[in-house]
Structure formats: structure tokens, C-alpha cells
Write a structure and sequence with these properties.
By secondary structure, this protein is α/β, with parallel strands linked by helices. Among the domains are: 65-99, no CATH class; 109-325, Rossmann fold. Helices cover 35% and strands 7% of the residues. It has helices at 2-36, 94-98, 109-112, 136-148, 169-173, 193-200, 219-236, 261-277, 310-321, 328-337; strands spanning 130-134, 160-163, 185-186, 189-190, 204-208, 241-245, 281-283. Strands 2-1-5-6-7 form a five-stranded parallel beta sheet, sandwiched between helices. Helix 6 (193-200) packs parallel to helix 7. It is globular. The N and C termini lie far apart (109 Å).
Length: 361
């Protein structure tokens, strides 16, 4: 009898140990599965990853092509020597070093006519219920606005900002789960711009993106990505107004072999037509940032490249306050008077109550 009890006790002890071990192993397996489980994939519209997986940060410059590999060098009078005309090549301007074309000071008349035209000057209330979406140049505008609001709380109305250094149109499309994502933190969470815009409850978005695209993507790729971006924004906020700001210029010494002002001009010209075709407005802020030759004015640049001094932001803001897009109510009247289009064709009278014109005069 005692032996039977002993056997039973031993059996129970063994079974208990087996059960405890099984529970431990089971917990370990479940924990490992949870730890290694991939996060749910975000549902996004069709997107083609960048051709170059590692996108260079153009704001950090690019490696200059060695002198011996350069094409024909145009040496200004008095530079170089008879024996070696490229002796002082490092002192040449990029346009001379790489044979770059000169930029445009002014847009062709037909292109300029499709941009937002001069209006009566607005007050800061014009920027209420709006958000600026952009890269480090727009981040500079955000920082400038934040500083100005320390003494004028209503500076730029209640405009908000989604601005990220080195941000591109292509970057806005990358899923938040991607290792290449550089989206803004919003309420502590990495969030794509269209979702931030929807949560902000704004009625108007000003987009200034392109300096990190022009040197990498073809015009078609750039505009295709732009189309996806604005469609996502409209899906998130169907009645939002979208104004595209021109890609800002570079200084004469800040041009790069793959990123230069004449190329920026070409992309901007294409962007003007794109804006009109896609129901957006185009505000040509570059106009007040260029010198007489079409380069970013040296005095307006903070780094002799592309970033801006406070005086440049003053000119930028003043230009926008003199080139206003209509209110949503005025836009509805424009559409009704112009067969559903927001741009006024030549010969069509201006809508009563709206001073100035959006698009064609």
C-alpha cells in the first residue's frame, strides 16, 4: 500500500513537472512569435519604389567630377595658364565647370499666365486653416514663423507646418513601415502627410517640394509621384484646396552637376501646367528670390546654396499675400461661372466679390 502511494506521488510529481515545462515552452514559443511577427502592412495606393534605393541628400552637395574627366572647360579671361587652362578650375562657377545652361529670370508668358496672378494684399487671416508641406526650405519658414510669433502671436495666421529636412515628393509616398521612411512625427507617431492633414482639419495646403526630386527623378517620374500625393490628400480631405509653390532656386555658386537652376526652371514650367490640369493653383514664389540672372540672390541665401535668410521669407510671405488663391466660397463661384474649372479662361469675366484672378487673367 505504501509502495502504491509512493508510486502515485512520484507519478504526480513527474506529471506536474511535465505540465510546468510544457507551459514554459508554450509561453516561450508564443513570445517569440509575437516578437518576430511583422507589423501589419499599410494599405496604400500604387507606388513604385525609387529607382535609386539610396537617395542622396542633395543638400549635402555632391562629389565633383575630377578635372581630367570634365568636358570642355570654359575658362573666364585671366584665369588659368597657357600651359594648363584648367589650373584654376576649382575657382570656376559650376555653370562654367560643367557647361550648365543659364536659368530663366522670368517664365515664358504662356507659362506665367497659368500661375496665380497679382491680387489685393491680404491679411494674415489668409493663412488661417492652412498647412505648409515641404522640405528643409519650408522648415526654415516654420522656424522663422515660430520666432516671429514670440512677438506677434498671429503672424501668418494660424498656419501649420509639415516640414522635414531632405523631404521629397517621393518620400511622402513611402509607407511608414519602410526603413526609408522619414515622415514627420505627429502626436508621437510617424505619420504620412495626408493623414496629418486630415487630422489637422485644415482647408488648404501649400506644397513646396522638389529640391530633393529634381536631381534624381525625370520630369515624368516627378509629376507621377506628385499626382499620387495630391490624390492621396484629396482622398483624405475631398474638399481641400491645393496650391503648389515653385521649387526654389540655387545661388550661382550653389549649383550641382545634376541639380541646377535651368533644370529647376524646366521642372517648374512643367509643374505649372500640371497644376492647372489637376485642379491645383501654382504660386511662383521664386520670382522674388531670384537675381537679375535668375539665380537665388546671394543676400537671401544663408548657406550660399539653397537655404534662406529671414529677408527671403519676408519676400516669400509678402508675395503670397499679394498672390492669393480664392476662398473655398469664391472657388465654388469660379467653378460655377467657368464650367467646373478653377482657372479663369481669357475673356471670361471675373467672379463678383473676388479681386484679382487665379490662373489665367
Amino acid at each position: 500500500m505504501k509502495n502504491n502511494k509512493k508510486i502515485i506521488r512520484n507519478t504526480v510529481s513527474v506529471l506536474s513537472m511535465i505540465i510546468i515545462a510544457a507551459i514554459f515552452v508554450g509561453c516561450f514559443i508564443i513570445t517569440e512569435q509575437l516578437r518576430t511577427k511583422e507589423p501589419p502592412k499599410q494599405q496604400i495606393s500604387s507606388y513604385t519604389p525609387p529607382i535609386n534605393a539610396e537617395i542622396p541628400d542633395l543638400f549635402n552637395g555632391d562629389e565633383d567630377t575630377p578635372v581630367e574627366e570634365l568636358p570642355v572647360i570654359v575658362v573666364p579671361p585671366g584665369e588659368g595658364t597657357e600651359d594648363d587652362p584648367t589650373e584654376n578650375v576649382e575657382e570656376l562657377l559650376p555653370r562654367e565647370k560643367y557647361g550648365l545652361p543659364y536659368p530663366q529670370k522670368d517664365r515664358p508668358e504662356d507659362i506665367q499666365a497659368m500661375t496665380v496672378q497679382h491680387t489685393s494684399k491680404s491679411g494674415y487671416e489668409y493663412f488661417d486653416n492652412s498647412v505648409f508641406l515641404g522640405d528643409s526650405v519650408t522648415l526654415g519658414l516654420k522656424n522663422y514663423t515660430t520666432k516671429k510669433r514670440q512677438t506677434d502671436s498671429y503672424f501668418l495666421g494660424n498656419a501649420k507646418f509639415i516640414a522635414v529636412g531632405s523631404y521629397s515628393v517621393a518620400d511622402t509616398l513611402v509607407p511608414v513601415t519602410s526603413a526609408n521612411s522619414i515622415h514627420s512625427l505627429y502626436n508621437g507617431v510617424v505619420t504620412q502627410p495626408q493623414d496629418i492633414i486630415a487630422d489637422m482639419g485644415v482647408k488648404r495646403v501649400f506644397i513646396c517640394l522638389g529640391l530633393n526630386d529634381v536631381g534624381i527623378y525625370t520630369q515624368n517620374e516627378y509629376l507621377t509621384n506628385y499626382s499620387i500625393l495630391i490624390n492621396r490628400i484629396r482622398q483624405a480631405v475631398p474638399d481641400i484646396q491645393i496650391a503648389i509653390l515653385s521649387v526654389t532656386p540655387l545661388t550661382v555658386e550653389g549649383e550641382r552637376k545634376i541639380l541646377y537652376n535651368a533644370k529647376i526652371d524646366e521642372y517648374n514650367n512643367a509643374l505649372v501646367a500640371f497644376a492647372q490640369e489637376n485642379g491645383c493653383y501654382f504660386i511662383d514664389i521664386s520670382t522674388v528670390l531670384k537675381d537679375e540672372l535668375g539665380y537665388l540672390t546671394d543676400e537671401l541665401s544663408s548657406d550660399n546654396y539653397c537655404h534662406l535668410e529671414p529677408e527671403a521669407y519676408d519676400a516669400w510671405i509678402d508675395y503670397m499675400m499679394h498672390h492669393c488663391i480664392p476662398t473655398p466660397e469664391e472657388e465654388a463661384a469660379l467653378k460655377e461661372a467657368n464650367g467646373g474649372a478653377i482657372h479663369i479662361d481669357k475673356g471670361v469675366p471675373e467672379v463678383e466679390g473676388f479681386e484679382g484672378s487665379a490662373g489665367l487673367p
